[in-house]
UniProtKB/TrEMBL annotation:
It is an enzyme of class 3 (hydrolase). This is Inositol-1-monophosphatase. GO terms for biological process: inositol biosynthetic process; phosphatidylinositol phosphate biosynthetic process; signal transduction. Pathway: Polyol metabolism; myo-inositol biosynthesis; myo-inositol from D-glucose 6-phosphate: step 2/2. One of its GO terms (molecular function) is inositol monophosphate 1-phosphatase activity. Mg(2+) binds at E78, D101, L103, D104, D251. Its cofactor is Mg(2+). It comes from Podospora anserina (strain S / ATCC MYA-4624 / DSM 980 / FGSC 10383) (Pleurage anserina). Its EC number is 3.1.3.25. The keyword Oxidoreductase does not apply. Pfam families: Inositol_P. PROSITE patterns: IMP_1, IMP_2. It comes from the Eukaryota.
Length: 308
């Protein structure tokens, strides 16, 4: 019911704040060097796929809080699932599920690059319904609940940037800021998927590339190192487009909820070809490929401007 959803939302937001506080405290200890145990970094699938004690402690806290309050819900957490469980399609279509990354941007965290956050998604019938993303070092809390809007720090409604943008997808990517993640799979070769995607972005930004002559080039290409922050920044309007191949559900569940509620689109399309076609389907969690497009600004008549 609506009331139950409200209660779960309130609970999820408080959980995100508490978990974010744990992340901040751990980061402070880590970088003042008073707690050496927490400096340990363990490798998972490869030397760039890492986990710290903080990931595990924060996930244990979130998992036990959810299990105490909602024992019948399913819990999916990055650290719980990476220990040998099947990593195929994890989100239940029938049981309400929590999809949690206790520390998204672990590499950033270990390098004190401030783009790291706790990411809590709540899924109903396979649809991301509540999203809480809290980046404590930046003091940015993104929250959303289906039908109740998406918010920054609980007061500013997303998207923040409402300038008219070229109608998506037809005129993209002129004047856009793209975000593109490198992921963790470094087995790729120059003719492989990752390289081709990044190259296509670079081409769109280059004067001689792709569509440079057709009204402008990509303004910039960014890579935050946190998939969920990429989605939150796309919801904010800071990014126009984000793409990554190879994400897991916990990397994106909360961010997808926030972006969709802000009016953006998430699909499992392939750039750049699919950005130019109208055939864009809403993504289903469990896809490994994500392309996010920011919420559109108001129409020309609303702004009195002639577009860009
Ligand atoms: C990773 C980050 C990174 C993305 C990877 C994720 P983690 O999550 O979101 O930006 O490229 O696909 O796995 O390991 O820091 O929680």
């Amino acid at each position: 019911t609506e009331q139950e959803l409200d209660e779960i939302y309130t609970f999820a937001v408080q959980l995100g704040k508490d978990a974010g506080k744990m992340l901040l405290e751990a980061a402070q200890l880590r970088f003042t060097g008073t707690q050496t145990a927490d400096l340990e970094v363990e490798e998972k699938d490869s030397s760039v796929d890492i986990v710290t004690k903080t990931d595990e402690d924060v996930e244990a806290f979130i998992k036990s809080s959810i299990e105490a309050k909602y024992p019948h819900h399913k819990f999916i957490g990055e650290e719980t699932y990476s220990k040998g469980a099947s990593r195929s399609y994890l989100v239940s279509e029938t049981t309400p599920s929590w999809c949690v990354d206790p520390l998204d941007g672990t590499v950033n965290y270990t390098h004190l690059f401030p783009m790291f956050c706790v990411s809590i998604g709540f899924i109903v019938a396979g649809r991301p319904t509540i999203g809480v993303v809290y980046a404590p070092f930046l003091n940015q809390l993104f929250t959303s609940c289906r039908g109740r809007g998406a918010w920054l720090n609980e007061t500013q409604r997303l998207p923040l940037i409402r300038n008219p943008i070229p109608p998506m997808p037809a005129d993209a990517p002129s004047g856009c800021v793209f975000s593109c993640e490198w992921g963790k799979d470094r087995k790729d070769r120059p003719d492989g998927n990752l390289y081709r995607k990044v190259e296509s972005f670079v081409n769109m930004a280059a004067e001689v590339g792709g569509r440079g002559g057709k009204g402008g080039m990509v303004h910039g290409i960014r890579s935050l190192g946190s998939a969920t922050m990429d989605l939150a920044y796309t919801a904010m309007g800071a990014f126009d487009i984000w793409w990554e191949g190879g994400c897991w559900e916990w990397d994106v569940a909360a961010g997808v909820a926030i972006l969709q509620e802000a009016g953006g689109l998430v699909t499992s399309a392939n750039p750049p070809k699919d950005i130019e076609t109208a055939e864009i389907q809403e993504v289903k969690l469990g896809s490994r490929l994500y392309l996010a497009i920011r919420p559109a600004g108001p129409s020309k008549t609303e702004t009195g401007r002639e577009g860009q």
